[in-house]
Amino acid sequence: MSLNVIDLIKGQLGPALVSQAASQFGESESGISKAIGGLLPAVVGGLANNADNPGVLDAITKAPSSGILGNLLGGSSSNPIITNLLSTIFGDKVSGLINSIASFAGISNNSAGSLLNLVTGATVGTVGKYAADNNLGASGISSLLNDQKGIISTLLPAGLSLASLNIGDWAKGYKFDNDNDAINTPSSEGPKVEVTRSTTPSGTNPDRNNNNEGGGSIWKWLLPLLLLIAAGYFLWKQCEKKQTTTTTTTSDSTAVNSTTDTAATAGTVTTTAPATTKTDENIDLNGIMLKGYKGGMEDQMISFLKSDGYKNAADDSALKDKWYDFDHVNFKMGSSTELEAGSQGQLDNLVAILKAFPDAKIKIGGYTDKTGNEASNVKLSQARADYIKAALSKAGVGSQVLGAEGYGSKFATVDATASDAERAVDRKMSVRFAK
Hints:
Layout: H1 5-9, H2 15-25, H3 29-49, H4 54-62, H5 72-75, H6 80-90, H7 94-105, H8 109-133, H9 138-146, H10 152-155, H11 169-172, E1 182-187, E2 190-196, H12 206-209, H13 219-242, E3 244-249, E4 269-274, E5 281-285, E6 288-292, H14 297-306, H15 309-312, E7 324-325, H16 344-356, E8 361-367, H17 374-397, E9 401-406, H18 420-423, E10 428-434
Parallel strand pairs: 8-9
Antiparallel strand pairs: 1-2, 3-4, 5-6, 7-10, 8-10
């Protein structure tokens, strides 16, 4: 199965960045997410359509060293690599693309333009990093991009098509799997949808089909209609898939039979539920308001401490099975020393909680998904846990952090063959109280 580079890129466009972008642009998080959902396939499609362009390949090769990934919100709009790249892949259709996305997502044109730069930066930066990590030369990058052509159209959200994005001839020149004979059939209720011409049904008299007076003429309108309905149903199902999210439910009383420290994820149950937008609220810390999710890490930890749950715990064994997952702290793909934008705020919140309850002690846990070499996973998760521990020590609460351990994929619940978005639930940092 070909690598879906969009799954890689989504690691750079997580909830923390969406939240930060919404705040910076003055838009709703749902609008930002919707815009990114439309822009990402379009940008990857544009690169795939120019997979053999030396300028595009050169830009992807240089992107990782340009610092794009480290400053997506701050530097994407002024980065010459992105500006030149957009001109190359979309030409004079950039403004039309921005207008379409702004209308689709319900955001301003300025915000849509900024997000186009951001998504383009995340795309070339991620593809470039993947190419560097896997020793791909220009031909390897070109092959990787060409592999995306068969999936791009299926990843566009409902209500969008290549034609509806106002990219004109660019869409006509785009080639997908099994579309050598494709035509654009207009829909009376929305953008054009690609359907395929059918051959004459078996047993049908061609002369009769050419006779507008004959009964066979029904196929001239019935067959395209049936195909259009089928295409609409397919797009609806794709949208339905995109609007679900994988969540985890962790029991406070998870039973673990082990003499060593274990993680609460051992008792995790994975369910699928309709996507909901989380919004930061004020979490009361003894009169100080922290920004966090209601029911999120800060809220749960503060409630536990205020209830004297920590004070009344007899020993460490009474605490070891309850872990609190960070909602916002995420590392950049493959890194143990660089956090995604928006992560620092929750680390600051944890520092504030520990300073407000100086008797409380904690331990840090790091986790990965099931992909890759397990020894490398353990090493990466340990390095990330150590990074968090060091950051807390630097903030003045190091004496309250009793340890940090990387568990690799030991407690991962999602199969390695699942999509990157589904496996994201296993890639996390957590904290528990300790004694």
